[in-house]
Amino acid sequence: MQRPTMHDVAAKAGVSQAVVSLVLSGRYSGRASETTAERIRAAAKSIGYRTNLQAKTLKTGVAEIIGLLGDEVATSPFSGQMIKGAQDRAWEDGNTLMTVDTGGDVELESAAIETMLSHQVRGILYTAMYHRELDVPQGALETRTVTLNARDISGRTPCVIPDEEKGGYDATRVLLDAGHTRIGMINIQPEERIPAARDRRRGFERALTEAGITPEPTLVRPGEGIHRSGYDGARALLALEEPVTAIFCGNDRTALGAYQALDELGLTIPEDVSIVGFDDQDVLRDYFHPMLTTVQLPFLEMGDRAAALVLDPTAPVTIHTIPCPVIHRGSVAPPKGR
Questions:
Q1: What is the C-alpha radius of gyration for the chain, rounded to an integer number of angstroms?
Q2: Topology of 6-51 in CATH?
Q3: What distance in Å separates the CA atoms of residue 106 and residue 79, rounded to the nearest whole number?
Q4: Would you give the distance in Å from CA 259 to the centre of its chain?
Q5: What's the rounded Cα separation, in Å, for the pair 223 and 189?
Q6: Is 290 helix (H, G, I), strand (E, B) or coil?
């Protein structure tokens, strides 16, 4: 069966093909009335006409597609929100999102970039499963590329990242404002590898310093961002000669381990010890009793901003930090006796 053409739409609507082209491309302002535009759209829908995107791409040299390329975008618990944010913004501007998960395979990544370039995408979102520093592949630089949830070491692309330091600062302020002065932190991953770990600690120490409290190295425990790190770190902080009354956990999985440690020690949250986490992982949310006060990673907003930057080639090549809001729940209270 032959596909309906623009000529068929024009005949159905009783207008010229030129007017149909203007209306369906959205460029009819001042050249056709809204009544005519509605009649043309109704005619196109009634006969099943679809715009030939391939022909449009050949004419303009750019497809209405944004590529999203990442190492584990299909499996990371955070990627769904990033993808949704980017997809919604792309869709608002009449574009679709082409997503490829490379699983860290360099050859697949190179092939995916070539495929995106061959489709003449409007740009590429080069993303990582967690906030880190990386090199953007040379091939991706042949089009407008924005680095998402990572920092481009070379500084050749705009970068969209969460404001981890301000998030760590705000998490610590929640505990300080509740009256705590003896506050520990259980960090995630080695700081020299992971900007998130470094920046969250910096925010933690800046909040303490501003409150007139000298940060103590013994109150910052190393970790791997996993349940066991939270368990071991909490027990160590509570075994000190002067135990902490509050703990800032570098992520929610760490906080879950801390919850278990406190329960085994016969301590209650927040009456005996207050806890603040980081990430706001929805898959863990129901495991916390009481519900965890935490800092939310703004993945939806990050995806939206990155897609907007791809669509705006005049935007400066700089680092765009997105605020991480505190989600107040039930794991923070004043120190015992206050």
A1: 26
A2: 434 Repressor (Amino-terminal Domain) (1.10.260)
A3: 20
A4: 27
A5: 6
A6: coil
Half-sphere exposure of 136 (CA within 13 A, CB side): 26
Span 164-297: which CATH code? 3.40.50.2300
Could you tell me the end-to-end alpha-carbon distance of the chain, in angstroms, rounded to an integer?
79
Neighbours of 93 (CB within 10 A): 13
pLDDT tens track for 287-319: 999 999 999 999 999 999 999 999 998 888 999
User: Is residue 159 a contact partner of residue 136, using CB atoms and an 8 Å limit?
Assistant: no
The residue type found at 262 is L
Q: What is the dihedral of CA 276, 277, 283, 288, to 10 degrees?
A: -30
pLDDT in tens, 155-176: 999 999 999 999 999 999 999 9
Positive or negative, the Cα torsion across 146, 147, 151, 152?
negative
The yes-or-no answer to whether 60-162+299-322 and 164-297 have a common fold is yes
Alpha carbon of 106 to those of 115, 124, 125, 155: distances in Å? 14, 16, 16, 21
Contact by Cβ (8 Å): 82, 89: no
pTM of the model: 0.80
CATH class entry, domain 60-162+299-322: alpha beta
| Surface-to-core class of residue 246, CB atoms within 10 Å of its CB (0-12 exposed, 13-18 middle, 19+ buried) | buried
Nearest to 81 by CA among 321, 333, 301: 301
